[in-house]
Design goal:
It contains 19 helices and 12 strands. The protein is an alpha/beta fold. The strands form 2 sheets. Strands 1-2-3-5-4-6-7-10-11-12 form a 10-stranded mixed sheet, with helices on both faces. Strands 8-9 form a two-stranded antiparallel ribbon. Helix 9 (258-280) packs across helix 13 (334-348) and helix 11 packs antiparallel against helix 12 (320-330).
Length: 544
């Protein structure tokens, strides 16, 4: 077997006679240049037929949700190299179109992550898509393998162990190394042999198996944040199966995953500089300084003060590290960054202040969300599984290299460099079963990106656009924050909706101008951690 990675085991032609079965056709796929390795003999159509022949037992997802929102569970191979071996669950959901005569196919969506459950996505997409697009699709959601109700993994982590974005300090670095080593060990012990198969490539294979189970020849897809990478991997493994593909707030495949996390620090610096300009131009209203240098000094004076004595708001104490971490997220929006510094300044002066409408620092432990079905630490455990398993080669095995990087990057990116570059559990993870996916295909797709996104910065979206050579890119100039669609911006939302409805990409890349309403709406959405009306899981500043 070629060492570049497993074959896309399901990347095989569906013929009229076999639909929705999986025929073995790796030779024809290889002629297109998309197959990275020959399929092993075990990955035959006969071995996969039991999975394809499954008939989901659809039922109402929850009593308090609409009756048309249905859920089911199917089985997928834990290891696609040995499909006759252990099986795991894949929890799926759907809302069928009410106009089957106008139906184009299925639209599968992913909310991001890694580690975010996606069963609720049909409700989300139904609320956000225009009627013309809703009529065209059965809306499909799923919890990716290892997540939520899809055979959830766990590491048995405490709330404090889940707090992973830790600033570099010489005095605590050895403890942070021990923490990272313990997390990797606990994940290995708790999730065993399942853990190494929780990867983006395997989730993409699950998506294609789901496509076959649903009896579809092709799959349309809408992916947010991490979901852009998942969508890109799907197009790479199954180019002939991808139909209409929208990827919003994109991951650069070449940077998955350590360099993408480090990009949070790189992206924060220009966003911070933009904020100082904005606040200085409004010094009469906010009083933070009438030049960028004065605004900058106001912020860093607050950091130094909080280092000496934490600043207290609403019973919460903000250290200097907390201020830096919170500001990294706050400068997604110039107004949100200003709100944060104004409130901190008032609190530091002993005046009434409130943090109720301000973002939490990235890495802040969240309330337990586990259940009898889903362990409390599932989102964190599945996050590490994907981030470490997708490309172990991206993670140094030398703890001292993380110390050096954290020190250097705190100097280069003072707001967040040490948080992003310091030691992570992947330093002690097992080696990846497969090499990272190289994305390089001509599948038609639409890449959607805000100009001012510190989570997946504009160059990240541009990089994915370059890798997806059949794509068009929609850039929102002046657009703030992470996640674009829907924004209330007619140019942006209309371009996305037209593509999903007609299947026709713009003839060239599109540039839209952000509006005050769309950026203001994005700010409010982040404060609630969901888009308006969207029943999405909490969107965290320490996820993609």
């Amino acid at each position: 077997m070629c060492r570049r990675g497993l074959a896309p085991l399901l990347a095989v032609g569906v013929t009229a006679a076999l639909a929705p079965g999986l025929a073995t056709s790796t030779a024809s796929a290889a002629q297109t240049g998309t197959v990275q390795a020959a399929a092993p003999a075990s990955a035959t159509a006969s071995a996969l037929d039991p999975y394809v022949r499954q008939k989901p037992k659809w039922q109402r997802c929850e009593a308090d949700k609409p009756a048309e929102y249905q859920c089911a569970t199917i089985k997928v191979p834990l290891d696609y190299r040995a499909p006759g071996g252990k099986r795991i669950d894949m929890a799926i959901s759907r809302i069928k179109t009410t106009t089957p005569d106008k139906r184009h196919g299925v639209l599968l969506a992913n909310p991001g992550g890694p580690g975010e459950p996606g069963l609720v996505m049909p409700l989300q997409m139904r609320d956000k898509l225009p009627e013309s697009a809703r009529r065209s699709y059965d809306l499909i959601g799923f919890d990716p393998r290892g997540v939520g109700r899809s055979t959830p993994v766990t590491c048995g982590l405490t709330t404090e162990e889940e707090n992973w974005l830790r600033p570099y300090k010489e005095a605590t670095f050895d403890k942070d190394v021990a923490w990272a080593r313990d997390v990797a060990r606990k994940c290995r012990e708790k999730s065993g042999a399942t853990l190494k198969h929780i990867t983006t490539r395997n989730t993409a294979r699950d998506m294609d198996l789901l496509r076959a189970v649903l009896g579809e020849k092709k799959l349309s897809y809408f992916g947010y944040s991490y979901g852009t990478y998942l969508g890109a991997v799907y197009t790479q493994l199954f180019p002939s199966r991808a139909d209409r593909v929208v990827v919003d707030s994109a991951v650069d495949p070449a940077r998955a995953w350590r360099k993408m996390i480090q990009w949070w620090a790189e992206g924060a610096e220009p966003a911070f500089d933009r904020w100082t300009e904005w606040a200085a131009a409004r010094s009469g209203k906010y009083g933070l300084g009438d030049t960028t240098k004065k605004v900058d000094r106001t912020f860093w004076d607050l950091v130094r003060r909080a280092d000496e004595k934490p600043i207290e708001m609403d019973g919460e104490k903000y250290t200097g590290d907390d201020v830096r971490s919170t500001m990294r997220r706050a400068v997604f929006s110039v107004r949100e960054g200003t709100d944060l510094v104004v409130e901190l300044k008032k609190a530091a002066a002993g005046r009434p202040a409130s943090a109720k409408r301000l973002p939490d620092p990235a890495g802040t432990p969240r309330p337990a969300t586990g259940s009898a079905e889903v362990p409390n630490d599932n989102m964190t455990a599945s996050f590490w599984a994907v981030v470490c398993n997708d490309n172990s080669a991206a993670w140094s095995r030398d703890p001292e290299s993380y110390r050096r990087d954290a020190i250097e990057d705190k100097g280069r990116y003072p707001l967040y460099g040490d948080f992003a570059s310091s030691i992570k559990p992947c330093a002690f993870w097992d080696r990846s079963v497969e090499r990272a996916t190289v994305v390089n295909n001509k599948v038609g797709s639409l890449v959607v990106q805000n100009e001012w996104d510190s989570q997946t910065p504009l160059p990240s979206g541009q990089a994915l656009h370059a890798d997806l050579k059949g794509s068009r890119m929609l850039t929102v100039l002046g657009g703030e924050g992470h996640i674009v669609y829907p924004s209330g911006n007619a140019c942006t939302d209309g371009t996305v909706a037209d593509y999903l409805t007609t299947g026709k990409l713009p003839t060239k890349d599109v540039t839209c101008e952000a509006t005050g309403d769309s950026n203001g709406g994005a700010q409010e959405d982040r404060r609630r951690d969901v888009r308006p009306g969207a029943p999405l899981p909490q969107r965290s500043p320490d996820r993609f």
